[in-house]
């Protein structure tokens, strides 16, 4: 036989795999909320409610500290600006109405030369208007244009105030009038068209004339009453205690000697013998049993009386 080559399998060494421990994340702490409302010295709220969200007490203390530090910084900065006279300028639109200085009437005394010149200018047609305005200002203490504009504004304000008072009185006297911008414009347009003053009588006249084309009072549907099913009355059951007839002890009577028999119709029936009790049996007997026997067992009451009497006589003899 020829030499055969035998191949022997060689095992490859396997390196051990290191086991990595599983990392378990710590449980998440739920978020909490702390809120408070700043107030003034009288307990009225100042600004909105302050809300701080946190997860631990250390985080809450840190956020409260940061908030307090920011407040102290802002207070010191504002105090510094006030002491240095620095103020923030407000941005006001150009067309915003400005406050007018109250009108003061301060007459001006003219010198003799000014009077002579003013009298000459009044006679000159070209200088008449300027001279008359100067004379008015010297006499009254204000220019004619200023007086004219002031009186016009006062008249408009008086008219607006009168219209407001009279319209409020009209609405309080007219419950079927629905107050809205469209209805108020309809009333005022009608009064302006007919050259009427804004008084309550004219408001009512305008309302009666334009009622059909004005917005009516909206109808609010009342909620339907809850349906209540009828409940049949249940008569209360009164448990009455049984009326017990009073126990009357039987009177002793002379009876024939007992024979143990009695007649029932044409049949002779044996009479049950009466159970004998001792005074000890009576004293140890339950109350319910004693009561039942006293009410329903014939001769029981008499027997109890006899036992009690005998016991009393025994004690007397001793």
Summarize the structure.
By secondary structure, this protein is mainly alpha-helical.
Structure description:
The chain is mostly helical and 318 residues long. Among the domains are: 32-84, no CATH class; 163-213; 276-317, no CATH class. Helix content is 44%, strand content 6%. It has nine helices and four strands, in the order E-E-H-H-H-H-H-H-E-E-H-H-H. It has helices at residues 57-84, 112-123, 128-140, 144-173, 181-193, 200-210, 279-284, 287-296, 300-317; strands spanning 32-36, 50-54, 261-264, 267-270. The strands form two sheets. Strands 1-2 form a two-stranded antiparallel ribbon. Helix 2 crosses helix 3 (128-140). It starts with 31 loop residues before the first strand and ends with a helix. Residues 236-257 and 263-271 have low confidence and may be disordered.
